[in-house]
């Protein structure tokens, strides 16, 4: 019998000795750099949901067998919602990550968002109605969306790049709409997972349930991107810190999706 010292070494990652860069992470990273470069007050988040075919009213069905970045077509739309049991399942899962290790921190937020003309939003505390500090009055602009179809899972996801710019004064006119948010926030190494129940006055008995993963420090992310783009590796398949960060972002979303019962 061969001794343990002569046991076979693990196989090399490829004939070249390393893993290829993750193609989806590379595409997402280049896309974020294209839209986010030089932009202040950037927000980058991924929401889970389903891509719906408006012609059938059902989830999109495409002849692909794995995760796919889509070029959205007429009649397709993304819906960022889940059922109450799925919300509870994720709540229990995320709570289980907080208690034993302390790697994941947790807080609960109850707020009301008031929408105004010109994309202005005012966020108030649900109990005191005081305007949130900081960033309680903002103007939100959407720069780009990327929709990712996951045929083997119960959910797809959409990555959004937005700006959220502080507004100095509270609007004087009446708000056009409002919604109440009961949000659970879980933070882990540069990412925040927000699990939210949204109540709307027109349908108080039909709350919406949403989950999003947000990058906490987009300025730091863009610094990583700038370093990777300004001094590219000699080998185009070599991973940068920026590639790694984007892959962790995607993996957080993927792992959450895979935990939910369809």
Structure explained in plain terms:
The protein is α+β, with helices and mostly antiparallel strands and 262 residues long. A hairpin with a 2-residue loop joins strand 9 (177-188) and strand 10. The chain has helices at 23-36, 84-98, 218-230, 241-258; strands at residues 42-53, 58-59, 68-70, 76-79, 105-116, 120-125, 137-149, 156-166, 177-188, 191-200, 203-215. Helix 1 (23-36) packs across helix 4 (241-258) and helix 3 packs across helix 4 (241-258). It has one domain (21-258): mRNA triphosphatase Cet1-like (mRNA Triphosphatase Cet1, Chain A, Alpha-Beta Barrel). The chain is 23% helix and 37% strand. Strands 1-8-7-6-5-9-10-11 form an 8-stranded antiparallel barrel, surrounded by 4 helices. The model is unreliable at 1-5 (pLDDT under 50). The termini are far apart. The chain has 4 helices and 11 strands.
Which key terms come to mind for this protein?
alpha+beta; 8-stranded antiparallel β-barrel; globular; disordered N terminus; EC 3.6.1.74; nucleus
């Amino acid at each position: 019998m061969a001794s343990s010292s002569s046991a076979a070494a693990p196989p090399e990652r490829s004939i070249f000795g390393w893993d290829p860069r993750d193609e989806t992470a590379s595409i997402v990273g280049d896309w974020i750099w294209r839209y986010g470069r030089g932009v202040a007050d950037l927000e980058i988040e991924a929401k889970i949901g389903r891509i719906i075919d408006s012609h059938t009213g059902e989830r999109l069905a495409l002849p692909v067998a794995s995760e796919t970045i889509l070029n959205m077509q007429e009649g397709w739309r993304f819906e960022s919602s889940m059922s109450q049991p799925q919300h509870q399942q994720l709540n229990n899962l995320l709570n289980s990550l907080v208690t034993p290790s302390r790697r994941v921190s947790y807080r609960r937020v109850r707020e009301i968002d008031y929408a105004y003309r010109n994309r202005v939003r005012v966020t108030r505390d649900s109990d005191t109605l005081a305007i949130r500090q900081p960033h309680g009055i903002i103007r939100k602009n959407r720069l780009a969306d990327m929709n990712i179809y996951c045929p083997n899972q119960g959910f797809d996801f959409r990555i959004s790049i937005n700006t959220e710019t502080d507004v100095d004064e509270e609007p004087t006119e009446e708000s056009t709409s409002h919604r109440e948010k009961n949000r659970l926030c879980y933070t882990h190494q540069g990412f925040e997972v927000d699990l939210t129940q949204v109540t709307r006055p027109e349908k108080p008995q039909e709350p919406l349930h949403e989950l999003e993963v947000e990058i906490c420090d987009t300025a730091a992310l863009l610094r990583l991107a700038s370093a990777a783009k300004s001094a590219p590796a000699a080998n185009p398949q070599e991973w940068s810190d920026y590639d790694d960060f984007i892959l962790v972002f995607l993996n957080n979303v993927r792992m959450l999706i895979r935990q939910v019962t369809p």
